[in-house]
């Protein structure tokens, strides 16, 4: 199914152009960065993600989240992809990421396919940005022109991942602050939280709302009582918190505006979701209502806010490097160990790019 869709996309609609009042700045990046050096990169990313979705309908959500968790920690530089080594304190071991982030294998599959077509050209940071956009398209959302030209970091920062990534228990003040330090405003916060229209959360991230909100021994009063019953079935009180619930109980694998309609019914899963609507007098309530009423508006703002998030402190020009293996910096000898343990087909690609 994927090859037909890919070729159609390449012909007519790889990029969705949008007009309107939402302004977009590409910063130092450029959607046509690989036009000459790797013209098929978008189609290649799309095909690999499309194939991955066939066996895992959640993977699009996981890839969107990877880009977010990359960008909020020393910028969109693929630092999240660096594995633990003697010199790398991996962000994958930070609390928001450990036993939680997914899709590293799919990113590596994309990288292998892209290296085959255009060796040593496309950064892992750009692959994350493209994979996020393609994931939204393939789950019934709208795409956008992805600004490109990021380069990959030679460092990672686990401490910074712990401090910069907002917690699901955050209140609205904390959420706004976490976005503001990244240059993202309240509209960006509400629009980007709409990514919780697909994917899953472990019970541990919202269990307190079901059984013991703010240590009151009672459920969160802003949690719909019917939804509360559903969630207590998914997350037993004496459980270890490892069960999964859909972030959007209505259309769990579809990119749509239902997240906002859920918030209006007190059917938001995380505290950080529901506070956007339930904090009394907050300026976020009107924004939630506007997206709940108009999916076109949400899609336009989501695209603009993703571009803005994708512009956070990129490495460009001669900064950083183009990694040959996304999990290791080029100078890291651990990479050679990885080469030795990789499949033969990957092996050839890696060796040819050394
Ligand atoms: C506003 C602050 C945010 C908080 C507190 C937050 C927190 C969380 C948590 C706790 C999970 C579940 C993780 C797990 O249980 O393994 C999650 C999942 C997810 N988040 Fe967020 N998030 C936020 C914003 C965002 C943003 C800005 C995006 C992307 C633009 C995003 C995309 C996702 C996606 C797609 C999933 C599902 C991932 C999967 O199923 O693999 N989140 N988030
Ligand atoms: C990098 O670490 C992840 C776990 O965080 C692991 O699944 C993956 O296999 C590692 N990649 C390589 C190439 O060693
Ligand atoms: C990680 O980030 C913190 C906070 O910005 C900084 O103080 C620290 O030096 C960084 N560590 C590394 C290894 O870059
Ligand atoms: C949000 O949490 C902070 C602590 O991080 C607290 O100081 C503040 O009072 C809380 N704000 C609201 C509105 O509850
Ligand atoms: C709620 O949490 C507090 C603090 O962890 C604890 O002391 C209390 O016993 C809990 N209440 C219930 C009903 O679990
Ligand atoms: C709770 O959710 C149901 C649908 O799931 C909805 O019909 C009901 O109105 C909601 N209750 C409140 C108080 O929003
Ligand atoms: C929905 O939002 C779009 C984009 O801003 C706008 O063009 C359209 O008029 C809106 N539709 C309604 C019914 O308000």
User: What separation lies between the terminal Cα atoms?
Assistant: 34 Å
* Helix count from the secondary structure assignment: 16
CATH class wording of the largest domain: Mainly Alpha
CATH structural fold name of the largest domain: Peroxidase, domain 1
Number of self-contained structural domains: 2
Overall SS class: mainly alpha
What would you report as the Rg, rounded to the nearest angstrom?
Answer: 20 Å
Q: Which architecture of the largest domain per CATH? A: Orthogonal Bundle
Structural account:
This protein is mostly helical and 354 residues long. It has two domains: 27-165 and 310-350, Peroxidase, domain 1 (Orthogonal Bundle), CATH 1.10.520.10; 172-176 and 178-308, Peroxidase, domain 2, CATH 1.10.420.10. The chain contains 16 helices and two strands. The protein has helices spanning 2-13, 41-55, 59-71, 104-117, 124-138, 158-164, 172-180, 186-193, 207-211, 225-234, 258-264, 271-278, 284-293, 295-310, 334-340, 344-352; strands spanning 200-202, 244-246. The protein has a two-stranded antiparallel sheet with strand order 1-2. α2 runs antiparallel to α4 (104-117) and α8 (186-193) packs across α13. The longest helix is centred in the C-terminal third of the chain and has 16 residues, at 295-310. The model is unreliable at 1-20 and 343-354 (pLDDT under 50). The structure holds protoporphyrin IX containing FE and 2-acetamido-2-deoxy-beta-D-glucopyranose (NAG) (6 copies). One 2-acetamido-2-deoxy-beta-D-glucopyranose binds at residues 155, 157, 159-160. One 2-acetamido-2-deoxy-beta-D-glucopyranose binds next to α7.
């Amino acid at each position: 199914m994927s090859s037909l869709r890919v070729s159609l996309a390449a012909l007519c609609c790889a990029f969705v152009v949008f007009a309107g009042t939402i302004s977009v700045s590409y910063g130092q990046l450029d959607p046509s960065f690989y036009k000459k050096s790797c013209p098929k990169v978008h189609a290649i990313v799309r095909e690999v993600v499309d194939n991955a979705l066939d066996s895992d309908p959640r993977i699009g959500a996981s890839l969107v989240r990877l880009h977010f968790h990359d960008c909020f920690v020393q910028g969109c530089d693929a630092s999240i992809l660096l594995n633990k080594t003697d010199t790398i304190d991996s962000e994958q071991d930070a609390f928001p990421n450990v036993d939680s982030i997914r899709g590293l294998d799919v990113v590596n599959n994309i990288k292998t396919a892209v290296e085959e077509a255009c060796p040593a050209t496309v950064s892992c940071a750009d692959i994350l940005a493209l994979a996020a956009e393609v994931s939204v398209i393939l789950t019934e959302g709208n795409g956008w022109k992805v600004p490109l030209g990021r380069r990959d970091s030679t460092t990672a920062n686990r401490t910074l991942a712990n401090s910069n990534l907002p917690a699901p228990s955050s209140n609205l003040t904390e959420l706004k602050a976490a976005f503001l330090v990244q240059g993202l405003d309240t509209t960006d916060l509400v629009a980007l939280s709409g990514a919780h229209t697909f994917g899953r959360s472990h019970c541990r991230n919202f269990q307190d709302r079901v059984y013991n909100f703010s240590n009151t021994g009672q459920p969160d009063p802003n949690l719909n009582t019917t939804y509360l019953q559903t969630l207590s079935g998914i997350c037993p009180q004496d459980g270890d918190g490892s069960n999964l619930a859909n972030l959007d109980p209505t259309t769990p694998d579809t990119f749509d505006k239902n997240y906002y309609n859920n918030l209006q019914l007190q059917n938001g899963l995380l505290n950080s979701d529901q506070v956007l609507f339930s904090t009394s007098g907050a300026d976020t309530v009107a924004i939630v209502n506007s997206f709940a009423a108009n999916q076109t508006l949400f899609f336009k703002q989501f695209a603009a806010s993703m571009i803005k998030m994708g512009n956070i402190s990129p490495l460009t020009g001669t900064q950083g490097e183009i990694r040959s293996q996304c999990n290791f910096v080029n100078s890291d000898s651990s990479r050679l160990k990885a080469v030795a343990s990789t499949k033969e087909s990957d092996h050839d690609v890696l060796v040819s790019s050394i």
